[in-house]
Amino acid sequence: MRDEERVGATREALSELPRQGRFITFEGGEGAGKSTQISRLKDRLNAAGISAIVTREPGGSPTAETIRELLLSGKVKPLGAEMEAVMFAAARADHVDEKIRPALASGDWVLCDRFADSTRVYQGEAGVDPAFLDRLEAVAVGGYRPDMTVLIDVSPDVGLSRVAARSGASGSSSDPDRFETDTKEVHMRRRQLFLDLAASEPSRFAVIDGGTSADAVANEIWQAVRARFPVDLGHAGPAAPDARRDRIGG
Ligand code: TYD
What gap in Å lies between CA 179 and CA 166, rounded to an integer? Predict the structure, then answer.
């Protein structure tokens, strides 16, 4: 057995360990509003008596956060898209080991801002061979595939203008990251790739229109989550309009 197969096999075996919580990932382009919506969903799950943690990629564990800094600074861009994909996968493997698997085993739900679908879309769009991405995913993720993926779909025009407004409002650290500076055509291709992925796995994905208000998006997501997990959330109350008005962000 080659090393990569041995590692993959070990991670598959680990994934057979009891997994009690639900694993929900959020995907979408820049400025889709993922972080706002993740925090809204966490509040609703908590109100329904479910304990949930919020995490993100790249990052989520100390080692993965170190890799995140390298990736988002653009310092490793010269290595090429394939090696960037390797680094995203390395960060993901640590994140699964250190945070996602233990949380799911303890019964927490895990709400993760981006996961392996982002590698398929961003590094796939950059030309990395899908078969290579499959192998990386098998090694990094093992059996820890999401139970549900919420794709928040917005046009690049809307998403990028939100990112620009956010950067302007924050005053400091307004430099766009390595992936936000790509051309509009690249952002449009990523949007289509996300939609294609969702169409290829309709039982895992819920595609939500992120161009409406934060409240409307939160309600749609809550309905989709309740429909996906009727046993856990069947009596969690009606999908009442959420009165709060948080910013719509990344
Ligand atoms: P982040 O600031 O977290 O962006 P966002 O708010 O849009 O989620 O930066 C993460 C960036 O890294 C984002 O541009 C997408 C990119 N990315 C990849 O290219 N591949 C991946 O596997 C992941 C997880 C993210």
Answer: 16
Asked whether the predicted pLDDT for residue 246 surpasses 50, the reply is: no
Q: What is the pLDDT of residues 82-95, one digit of tens each?
A: 999 999 999 999 99
Burial class (CB in 10 A: 0-12, 13-18, 19+), 74: middle
242 lines ligand 1 (CB under 6 A): no
Residue whose Cα lies nearest atom 10 of ligand 1: it is 58
Beta strands in the chain (DSSP E): 23-27, 52-56, 109-113, 148-153, 205-209
Answer yes or no: is pLDDT of 10 > 90. no
Q: Which residue, 113, 104, 137, 95, is CA-closest to 26? A: 113
Q: How far is the CA of 237 from the centre of ligand 1 (A)?
A: 34
- The residue nearest atom 8 of ligand 1, judged by CA position, is 250
Q: For a pocket test of ligand 1, which of 36, 73, 118, 189 has the largest count of ligand atoms closer than 8 A to its C-beta?
A: 118
Ligand 1 center from residue 52 Cα (angstroms): 22
Nearest 5°: phi and psi at 208?
-120, 135
pLDDT(239) > 80 = no
With tokens 């208000």, the residue in question is: 213
Is the omega angle on the peptide bond into residue 78 within 30 degrees of 0, that is, cis? no
How many whole angstroms separate alpha carbon 246 and alpha carbon 214?
Answer: 7
Ligand 1, residue 31: give the atom nearest the CA: 7
CATH of domain 24-233: 3.40.50.300
Q: What is the pLDDT of residue 180?
A: 79
